[in-house]
Amino acid sequence: MVASNPLFVGWSIRKFNATVVNDVWPEVLLFSGVATMVACVTKLTSHHLGISNVLLSVLGTVLGLVISFRTSSAYERYQEGRKMWTNIAIASRNIGQIIWVHVPHERKDMSTVESVVEKKSMMNLVQAFSVAVKHFLREEPGVYYQDLYPLICFLPRYATQVAPTTADMLPLWQASEDERFPLHTASAPGSSTQSLPTSFPSEKPKSKRRHHTFDPEEALASVQAHRPLLPARNPPETHFLDYFPILKVFPWLFSSCSRRVRATLMRKQNPKKKKGPLAESNVPLEITIYLSGYLAHLLRNGWLMPALATGLMNNISALQDTMSNLERIGSTPLPFAYQAHLRMSLWLYLFFLPFQVISTFGWLTIPGTAFASFLLLGFLEIGQEIENPFQYDLNDLDLDAFCRAIQRELHEIAAHTAPAPAEFVFSTWNQPLAPADRRSAAELVAAGGNDYTHADHGDSEPGMMSIRRVLLKNYVDVERLTRQMQ
């Protein structure tokens, strides 16, 4: 994602590619050519191609309002997508805190280490949810990715634990399987996944676009898989036609013709054979199911208070709601008829624009038409680009950064030791009654609770009365010190 004053701070090729110049220059060149033709014919010959500009102001105003609405609606989807990812971050933090702080470490028939491993594994599933949503929105199916597979590879793969077969594979793994790399069902006795890591090389294929010094997947577990893992970020490669989009019509025509030829040959060879639909699993939904199952496990064993269980369930539901909203944004484009009609109307307007302004502007019709084309077509392309902000475009949301932020926050929660307040409150570093009384908590406790006195109040009314006077003086001092600069 490119942001922060791209025109004036740190200009680079990457920031230039984030503009819409590459997308609109063929159309700008076309309409500038039309304007050049109109200006040359009118100025260099006896023919005058000018027409009345009565419709220019009316149609231009209406078209500008429609383009503005188009861009505003696209930006609204962009902002809503960002808000939804904020909701994922908030719910992930809440779930992580409830699991790590409120689920007890000491439990019956379970050691402290087992409890910590269980809780941290479930927090890894919370982290995996955001990563799975990222791949889901980018239309990258399956679970075999460098940033997702290490977080969920311990989940069960088969519905039965006794002599499992491929037909018993759960949807989470069934939809991700590849016949080139079959998953072996042989496993060690008692293995919940019914499939251990095989001898496939553990090297992670590096993404072609990631800088060699930045590899966030190194922070994840080193797990061998039975098939090569796809890179965490796999943007489409930039080709020659991306800079000359007008030439894309030729590959499209060639592929269309070749596809029809192949389809005809296939019908002749196998006239009755039809390809069945592929099974597809919603990976984020599967993860929330495991989180809900963990909540039910805690409730059955009495390891979580009902009020906290309600909060945990609400946050899991918030993850599911947010995923549905993100899917709605990503899979609901603007109607084709609206986009097609708007673009054709804009093309007609820009085509007839030189004919309407040639009488007034003369040779300036050429740069004027070029500027108008660049302005209007640019806004139209911006609206189309940010309409789905979850892909790899330079103006899209940085979903990888959002996932890494959630990862850091969950690890920060897990690093918290949740000590008893007595271990850190009554120390010499704490001055709870400042600014009126700057003695430390250890000194206040040593002075005694009911015998508390303060030098400004004397010893006539020790205890809580003196403490209340100190708190009141705190209020007065804070009001004075924090408002005196206003």
From TrEMBL:
Residues 188-201 have a biased composition (Polar residues). Its main location: membrane. It is found in: Cell membrane. InterPro entries: YneE/VCCN1/2-like (IPR044669). The chain crosses the membrane at residues 50-69, 346-366. Keywords: Cell membrane, Ion transport, Membrane, Transmembrane, Transmembrane helix, Transport. Pfam families: Bestrophin_2. GO terms for molecular function: chloride channel activity. It is a multi-pass membrane protein. GO terms for cellular component: plasma membrane. Residues 183-214 are annotated as: Disordered. PANTHER family: UPF0187 PROTEIN YNEE (PTHR33281), VOLTAGE-DEPENDENT ANION CHANNEL-FORMING PROTEIN YNEE (PTHR33281:SF19). This is Uncharacterized protein.
